[in-house]
């Protein structure tokens, strides 16, 4: 009998040990690496006005998780390091070189939220097969050492796309998994509750906002759903992350979801028809109506030196004095995809250097809104929301890519100052006369009938290229044959870019190809791609020249005309 009891106790003890040290152990689930030494210093300065070039890059694939937000990649500069957050986990890099410092991945778990403060990073992770059974974990930002974990809590108001949630002053804000009526401020260092704040009665945190924790250590803002309260639909609540106090709260009667962004002590709120800005006391000092003012989501904006700068999608940049509550200046500009301030400089990222030109552009913006423009060695896909950061003399730009298949990824490029060339900085030092005339790349023998040319020119700031960068060849005259009529559609030839050398052109071509979801290699020039299933648009690199040819009626016409245009470029060069 004693032997039987001993055997049972041994089995029970072994089961407990296995359950405690195997099933719930870290060693078989967690893939982590710790950093050695302190975090590198990263001065608060970006590159000066002038040409930029790539210093290093980081390609991060995304893995399909069944949730759209988890197919995103998000970034932050924390304590001299670049934090890369994906559905897989955290990957932290040396912001100067891109070299790995530490990472934290957990097999079978998804990262569904993250926060960054001055010296700490906090993550919310869930088992992929047990939704809701997640935990919040805090890490030392410099080394990646786990500091604490908490179950039964959820991030308060994470962004819909980046999954970042509000934090500041080394405090992160959470809510209980079963009850969303109370905010908690937890120490990012220990996980201990520092303060609690009860939400207005009848209100709950909205499912998610846009840029709710953009770049502020001193203020957080939440979009609340108060539909249960009579006569009130939406509310925005501002919270001091250090104390949990509410500087202000504002009701909105709009039934549309609110987009909220925090920059310094300024909160931007958009209901899709009006953009408003509030200071720390809740004073509304900007009111700008317009359904297309910000496009989808929120306008890019920043706060620096007491000024709020907003980039409207309509192609206008406006600066406001926050304390005085008045507009300082407004300028018509190209649309900016992202804005960033560091030191005394403001940076704006444009999707295109100019109409019909391939590369994106970086503007260094002065105190009065005047800008110095240079091309950037990357391509910004249409409709994307790139990330922009700066420090250590570098400018960091992250854009989505269609590769690797099937779900794509993000490419981050660190840009540094580059030597000036013989030509204007707007063309990366390439003389403007080197640009071929797009209306001289096809000849009468290349076209199926008589055509006239319709040229388009490019203007970059005060620089106008002397030749047409794009040309539409339109059929003219009476077409006698139905076969000729079918093939006599209007083709368009565009000189997308002229690089300093073939190597630079090849890198830009690769960046373009990586953003195209249906690009297929073509046997043409030095490298070429058909950009759509019907091969109606073909991109070609011939030496340091990149051109695109579009023809939509006859199969194979774009390829044939691209070959003819490429031969013309080679003869001229």
Number of helices: 4
Task: From the alpha carbons, calculate the radius of gyration and give it in angstroms.
Answer: 28 Å
Total tally of structural domains? 2
CATH superfamily of the largest domain: YVTN repeat-like/Quinoprotein amine dehydrogenase
End-to-end C-alpha gap: 98 Å
Oligomeric status: single chain
Please describe the biggest sheet, giving its number of strands, its sense, and whether it closes into a barrel.
7 strands, antiparallel
Shape: globular
Instruction: Tell me the CATH topology of the largest domain.
Output: Methylamine Dehydrogenase, Chain H
Strand content: 35-45%
Structural class: mainly beta
Task: Identify the strand order in the major beta sheet.
Answer: 35-38-39-43-42-41-40
CATH architecture of the largest domain: 7 Propeller
Number of E strands: 43
Output the CATH class name of the largest domain: Mainly Beta
Poorly predicted tracts of residues: 7-24, 479-487
Quickly list its features:
single chain; about 575 residues; mainly beta; Methylamine Dehydrogenase, Chain H; Protein Transport Mog1p, Chain A; 2 domains; 7-stranded antiparallel β-sheet; 5-stranded antiparallel β-sheet; globular
Secondary-structure map with pairings?
Blueprint: H1 2-23, E1 30-33, E2 52-61, E3 74-78, E4 81-86, E5 89-94, E6 100-106, E7 109-116, E8 120-127, E9 135-140, E10 146-151, E11 153-155, E12 167-168, E13 171-176, E14 179-187, E15 193-198, E16 204-205, E17 220-225, E18 234-239, E19 248-252, E20 259-263, E21 266-270, E22 274-278, E23 284-289, E24 301-304, E25 307-312, E26 316-321, E27 326-332, E28 336-342, E29 345-350, E30 360-365, E31 371-376, E32 387-391, E33 394-401, E34 409-417, E35 451-456, E36 459-460, E37 463-464, E38 470-475, H2 482-487, E39 492-498, H3 502-515, E40 520-522, E41 527-530, E42 537-542, E43 545-550, H4 557-572
Antiparallel strand pairs: 1-6, 2-34, 3-4, 4-5, 5-6, 7-8, 8-9, 9-10, 11-13, 12-13, 13-14, 14-15, 16-17, 17-18, 18-19, 20-21, 21-22, 22-23, 24-25, 25-26, 26-27, 28-29, 29-30, 30-31, 32-33, 33-34, 35-38, 36-37, 38-39, 39-43, 40-41, 41-42, 42-43
């Amino acid at each position: 009998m004693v032997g039987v009891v001993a055997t049972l106790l041994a089995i029970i003890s072994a089961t407990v040990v296995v359950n405690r040290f195997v099933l719930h152990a870290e060693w078989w689930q967690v893939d982590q690496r710790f950093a050695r030494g302190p975090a590198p210093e990263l001065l608060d300065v970006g590159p000066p006005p002038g040409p930029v070039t790539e210093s290093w890059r980081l390609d991060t694939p995304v893995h399909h998780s069944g949730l759209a937000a988890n197919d995103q990649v998000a970034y932050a500069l924390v304590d001299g390091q670049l934090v890369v957050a994906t559905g897989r986990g955290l990957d932290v890099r040396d912001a100067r070189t891109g070299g790995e410092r530490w990472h934290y991945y957990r097999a079978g778990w998804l990262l569904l939220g993250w926060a960054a403060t001055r010296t700490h990073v906090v993550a919310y992770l869930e088992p992929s097969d047990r939704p809701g059974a997640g935990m919040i974990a805090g890490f030392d930002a410099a080394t990646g050492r786990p500091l604490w974990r908490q179950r039964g809590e959820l991030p308060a108001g994470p962004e819909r796309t980046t999954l970042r949630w509000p934090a500041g002053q080394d405090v992160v804000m959470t809510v209980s998994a079963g009850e969303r009526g109370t905010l908690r401020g937890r120490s990012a260092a220990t996980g201990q509750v520092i303060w609690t704040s009860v939400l207005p009665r009848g209100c709950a945190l909205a499912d998610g906002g846009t840029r709710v924790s953009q770049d502020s250590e001193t203020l957080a803002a939440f979009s609340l759903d108060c539909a249960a309260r009579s006569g009130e639909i939406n509310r925005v609540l501002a919270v001091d992350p250090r104390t949990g106090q509410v500087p202000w709260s504002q009701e909105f009667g709009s039934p549309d979801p609110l987009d909220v962004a925090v920059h310094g002590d300024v909160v931007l709120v958009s209901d899709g028809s009006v953009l408003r800005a509030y200071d720390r006391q809740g004073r509304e000092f900007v009111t700008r109506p317009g359904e297309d003012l910000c496009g989808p989501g929120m306008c890019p904006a920043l706060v620096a030196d007491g000024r709020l700068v907003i980039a409207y999608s309509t192609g206008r940049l406006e600066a406001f004095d926050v304390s005085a509550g008045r507009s300082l200046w407004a300028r018509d500009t190209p649309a900016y995809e992202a804005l960033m301030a560091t030191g005394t400089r403001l940076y704006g990222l444009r999707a295109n250097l100019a109409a019909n030109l391939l590369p994106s552009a970086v503007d260094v913006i002065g105190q009065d809104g005047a800008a110095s423009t240079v091309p950037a060695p990357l391509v910004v896909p249409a409709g994307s929301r790139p990330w922009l950061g700066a420090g250590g003399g570098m400018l960091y730009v992250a854009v989505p890519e269609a590769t690797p298949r099937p779900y794509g990824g993000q490419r981050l490029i660190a840009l540094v100052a580059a030597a000036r060339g013989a030509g204007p900085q707007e063309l990366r030092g390439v003389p403007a006369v080197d640009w071929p005339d797009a209306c001289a790349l096809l000849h009468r023998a290349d076209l199926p009938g008589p055509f006239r040319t319709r040229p388009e020119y490019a203007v970059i700031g005060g620089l106008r290229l002397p030749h047409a960068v794009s040309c539409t060849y339109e059929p003219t005259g009476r077409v006698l044959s139905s076969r000729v009529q079918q093939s006599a559609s209007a083709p368009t030839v565009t000189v997308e870019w002229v690089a300093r050398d073939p190597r630079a052109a090849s890198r830009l071509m690769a960046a373009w190809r990586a953003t195209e979801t249906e690009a297929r290699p073509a046997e043409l020039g030095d490298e070429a791609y058909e950009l759509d299933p019907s091969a109606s648009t073909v991109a070609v690199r011939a030496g340091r020249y990149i051109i695109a040819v579009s023809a939509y009626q006859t199969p194979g016409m774009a390829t044939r005309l691209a070959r003819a245009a490429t031969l013309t470029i080679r003869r001229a060069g």
